[in-house]
Design a protein that fits this description.
350 residues, alpha/beta, three-stranded mixed β-sheet, 9 helices, 14 strands, 14% strand
């Protein structure tokens, strides 16, 4: 853990003050029976700072005093950056004196957790990849760029394999995602109105699996069924990713497209009906833009969206780097290594 602060003793400036507190005797100054600054909540400290009862410097000094007293025993703070923390405290105090706009926790000391995880060796990574799934077409420039990227990783020593989870009914996954969206969006709308909406939209969403269950009556039973399906696919994704470090796949069926206005509104939902072009073929807007991301939303998988270079159109090509559930930090470390093998390009403002 890397930190700037910790927990604190009594200050001479505070010995004549009386504080209301529910602290036990173990968290008070036994001589004066006042609560130690380091046992007060962040909101309490913030309120005292705003009221001018204490300064940020006093608070920070109190925490560092406690760090010096306790850290040799507990080794809870790895890096202590006292000089910088005190300088920042002085800046915070000056901002208060100058009447500058300050946030709700302005001047309150914090510790910062640093991720000191293991280094990632490209030659020890096992990477799964696919350039499409669920029958949703992907533009040639995305596929070509992904293939070239995977070849670079293989040449660098990574083990790469074109693969995807077994037993994934993508239509059912997309419908399950839609069930959650439908239950959360317009949750206060009556089922009568939902039924009417479903009647008018049924033909429109017939070929859009992620939209089929957004509109229509909802019930606790239907929601529980969606949770059961979600659990099934979470397990299958977890089993698949237990064999790989990450899974690479497209973000969408096409690269960036020109913005176009929504076709209509359905309650709070904006409806887009204008199809997108994927290598000359018309693909429904939602199928093109949601098919590859909603799978991971359903399985609760952490994902990094990463640009790997520019396609022939001159537009960035992004891929998804999906990792194991609850392994977000490792996913970020792996993605950082993979980024070394992407084609670098200047962003427009550069």
């Amino acid at each position: 853990m890397t930190a700037q602060l910790g927990a604190a003793p009594e200050l001479d400036e505070l010995t004549n003050r009386t504080f209301s507190s529910t602290c036990t005797p173990s968290c008070v100054n036994r001589e004066f029976m006042q609560p130690s600054l380091t046992f007060l909540s962040a909101s309490k400290l913030a309120a005292m700072l705003r009221a001018g009862e204490i300064t940020s410097r006093q608070t920070v000094e109190a925490y560092f005093a406690q760090i010096r007293e306790q850290n040799p025993t507990y080794n809870a703070i790895v890096t202590v950056n006292e000089a910088n923390a005190l300088a920042q405290a002085d800046q915070a105090d000056q901002a208060m004196r100058d009447g500058k706009p300050c946030g709700p926790l302005h001047g309150v000391p914090i510790t910062i957790l640093a991720d000191l995880g293991e280094n990632v060796d490209i030659s020890k990574l096992k990477i799964a990849w696919t350039d499409n799934f669920g029958g949703v077409p992907v533009s040639a420039e995305i596929k070509d760029k992904l293939h070239a990227f995977v070849n670079k990783l293989a040449q660098a020593g990574a083990t790469v394999q074109k693969s995807e989870p077994q037993g994934m009914d993508y239509n059912e996954i997309w419908e399950t995602w839609g069930s959650f969206v439908g239950a959360q969006g317009n949750y206060d709308m009556s089922n009568v109105k939902r039924s009417i909406g479903h009647l008018f939209s049924k033909s429109t969403v017939r070929n859009i699996p992620m939209q089929r269950r957004i509109v229509g009556p909802i019930s606790v039973r239907k929601l529980m069924q969606a949770f059961e399906l979600q659990s099934k696919y979470i397990t299958r994704m977890d089993n698949f990713l237990s064999e790989y470090d990450v899974w690479l796949c497209p973000v969408s069926a096409t690269t960036a497209f020109k913005h176009h206005a929504h076709s209509k509104m359905l309650g709070d939902f904006k409806i887009y009906s204008t199809p997108l072009q994927v290598d000359g073929a018309d693909i429904h807007y939602y199928v093109a833009t949601q098919s590859y991301t909603t799978v991971f939303s359903t399985t609760n998988s952490p994902v990094v969206s990463m640009p790997i270079g520019l396609g022939p159109s001159g537009l960035p090509v992004n891929i998804q780097v999906a990792g194991k559930r609850y392994s977000d930090r490792r996913l970020l470390r792996v993605a950082k290594v993979l980024d070394n093998y992407t084609d670098k390009f200047l962003y427009p403002l550069q």
